Amino acid sequence: MEREVNRYQGCLLGLAVGDAMGYTIDEKSWREIQTAYGPNGLLGYDIANGVVELSSYTQLAAYIANGLLVALTRGRREYYLRYITLALKDWLRSQQFYRDPEKPLCWVSRLPEFRRRHCRDSRMLDTLRTEALGTPSRPRNQNAAPGALTTAVALGLSFQPERMDPAFLGVLAAQTMALTHGNPETILSSVVLAYTIAGILQEPEFPLQQQFSQSIAAMEGQFSREFPQAAGLSDMLLQVVEGDKTGSREAMESLHCQTADQCLAGAMYASLACHGDFDTGMILSVNHSGRSSAVGAVTGAILGAQLGAEALPEFYLEGLEGVQPLRELAEDLAKGSPASGFFDDDWDHKYTQGLPSGG
Length: 359
What we know:
By secondary structure, the chain is mainly alpha-helical. It has helices spanning 2-23, 30-37, 56-74, 80-94, 122-128, 151-158, 166-178, 184-202, 208-223, 230-242, 249-254, 260-273, 278-286, 292-307, 314-317, 323-335, 345-351.
């Protein structure tokens, strides 16, 4: 169990590292990055006031993880999407400037590092303000931005065979993304990422390239009838997975990394091209002209799940906000709710009362 928890923690911590590193150069061109940081680009955090801050990518993964843990505490999988929606509404309220009088569902919403207003998807926020959110068959918009892509990481972390079957995970990933993002490729990218994270955690002995290929095939097999775009997305991602892994900036630039599917492709490329070196993967994943924070976050989650928290260099965790809460969420997802008939005061605080540990 200890080794398993290490991978879960590595996934969420790696996500936070990539997010925080990419946030300072998000959407800057490669030339602008070189001008600011030198010919090799950004090689570590650009720290302001000694604190490495998180953006919405880490926040959303944390809120969805928190919501899923509340659902697991209730013990019925039909509650999952309901509590995911409530967790997203909690995150929305955390992004408002007025003081929220409501009692939050998620204990992470009480922590200032998970309420910062960085790298927000404005169309996602607008959709969350409406009463009726989207579904895969009835989308509210055609938003293709990567703003909610990291919610799929939390979904992948929540998967265990005794909790749900793989097909249900795919459906839940599609439903979760469709709440705020109606673009088909974006919905399907969420499915691929959820399957990838779950696959790495459940079968860590499989090579990363094989994990990607299996996740892409599972997405296409499950959703090709509902979404004719599935075959095209599958072909695009497989070209990245099966192509040359030189680790070049030119390759990252060619992927554009603006939309959710492009960001997923960029993360897959960086994860494979770094050959298991977390630091190399982080540098490659953020130094390009696209959505550096999104690609960095997804790359960090993939590599963290593959390598485990112990493989993350300590200098990435020093000064990084939210390390302990993310460790807690990861451990709780790995272990699950307390056994029936046993009372756990800490679990009750977090997933019944919505209070941080000891709160």
